[in-house]
Design brief:
It is a single chain. Helices cover 30% and strands 20% of the residues. With 215 residues, the protein is α/β, with parallel strands linked by helices. The strands form four sheets. The chain has a five-stranded parallel beta sheet, covered by helices on one side. Strands 6-9 form a two-stranded antiparallel ribbon. The protein has a two-stranded antiparallel ribbon with strand order 7-8. α2 crosses α4. It is globular. The relative contact order is 0.10.
Length: 215
Amino acid sequence: MSLIDQAGLDIIIETNGTLVDDDLARFLKERRVCFVSVSVDGATAETHDALRRVQGSYERALAGIRALVQAGFLPQLICTLHRGNVSQMEEVVALAERLGCGSVKFNHVQRVGRGERLRGGARVEVAKIIRLYRHLEDELVPSSKIQIHFDIPLPSTRSAHCSAIRWAGVRSGISWACWRVGSCRCVASASPCQNLSTDISRLTICAKCGIIVLS
């Protein structure tokens, strides 16, 4: 890290927070660490530790966040949503506010690492994630004291009206875009979509086939 600092490069860190103490937090602040995010997968120790499979990891993660805040960081709290913690979104935002975080980011489960064990029944359906996003935009964002970001998984399918949709990412307060430039065709136009931006409220799911389309 000292070599990176000497090279004048900024550093972004994503961590589980369990090894961050006051000394390490100060060390990171003295280097060119410009942003730190910490994974906290629930508003309670029971929820977080069940996913992490390490007893005490929740309290250690919170201690790490407190150390980062004390050192002058505004860390981002990252929460990976699954069926065991989706009911705690409001509590997670409140927790981040109390800890002094600068933002919260809600992710969906990726099919790697521990995410492989959550495949199937524990994963949140895309339709429900979209409903959660709308709830977040309508209820949580207006009253939150910190920024809230939200990623929505979109299925990889060539059957969707716009094949670029699977590259889309959604974040609170920011429109999403079709990132794939080329031959995709959208509902609104027969011309190729090169930089389509729209609001998440226009995303709907076909009740018959389950494909996400632009309404």
